[in-house]
Amino acid sequence: MFRTAAAPAALVCTLASMSSAQLLNPSFDDPGFQTTFENWDQFGGNIFLVEDPNYQPPLDGTGCGKIFGNFDGQQQSDSGVFQSVAASEGDTYTATINVLHRSDDAMAGDNIALLILSWRDANGAEILADAKTVLDANSPLDQWIEDSITATAPAGTVSVDFFVLFIQFATDEFPFGAPGAMFFDKASLDLDEPSCYADFNGDSSVNTQDVIAFLNAWNARDSTADCNDDSSINTQDVICFLNLWNAGC
Ligand SMILES: [Ca+2]
Ligand SMILES: [Ca+2]
Ligand SMILES: [Ca+2]
To answer: Are 158 and 150 in contact (CB under 8 A)?
Structure first.
């Protein structure tokens, strides 16, 4: 467990080049000093680290998160955790979270949980957000549900906030807010490796070996040689490949 506040930027770069893992404390196992989870900011209320497997076993590691609403009578009451990581425009990321609600404390009414990627500019302002509902009153009970978003960072992106958001709504039936808790565990944010067709043999460099590999596949009428993706293998695909090969990766 570490509590250094200054380390993340350098650490993220190291991790990104090694494994493309972007989040710190992604399994919510490490408690924070002033927040519930190390490395995660939070807002709203009733955010807990559950470390009692007799109550709720985590999906991964030694603990999982739990959020329920404020029951403050507001029409909409938001609670959540988020983590900001460096991101670059044009890069494609896949964000994943696992969530669960229990039959003894099920999401009710209009309550929902969302996974959100909030793309930020150099001033920290949101450019765009990609969001997906990952839990609501209709979700299966008592089982971990994995959900993910794949999205590309818009122009001007320098960072992205990974949000796990719980929204409690008040209704006529539940004037102080609908009951129900969400549990969450095992988040990930991965940079999708861009595929490079010119590196035909996939060894991360583009050289004459790739021409040979392509021509072998082309001679064999292998579907991987359909460079222009028109479902036939012909000389157009050789031209297509050589153009990409000249351009490099
Ligand atoms: Ca965990
Ligand atoms: Ca190659
Ligand atoms: Ca073709």
So the answer is: no
Q: Is 225 among the domain residues? A: yes
Cα-to-centroid distance, 151 and ligand 3 (Å):
28
- Please give the distance, rounded to the nearest whole angstrom, from the Cα atom of residue 109 to the centre of ligand 1: 28
Number of domains in the chain: 2
For residue range 125-148, list pLDDT tens digits in order.
999 999 999 999 999 999 999 999
Residue 80 lies in a domain: yes
Query: How remote is the CA of residue 113 from the centroid of ligand 1, in Å?
Result: 18
> Alpha-carbon distance 11 to 25, whole Å?
12
Residue 202 Cα to ligand 2 midpoint, Å, equals 5
pLDDT at 21 (0 to 100): 60
Reported as a single tens digit per residue, the pLDDT across 185-198 is 999 999 887 778 99
How many A from CA of 172 to the centre of ligand 1? 36
> In sequence order, what are the residues at sequence separation of 6 or more whose Cβ sits closer than 8 angstroms to the Cβ of residue 147?
96, 97, 98, 99, 115, 132, 134
Residue 1 lies in a domain: no
Q: Specify the 3-state DSSP secondary structure of 65.
A: strand
Range of the domain at 186: 8-191
Residue corresponding to tokens 């839990």: 135
CATH number at residue 136: 2.60.120.260
Residue 15 and residue 45 share a domain: yes
Residue 17 is predicted with a pLDDT of 33
Distance from the alpha carbon of residue 233 to the mean position of ligand 3, in angstroms: 4
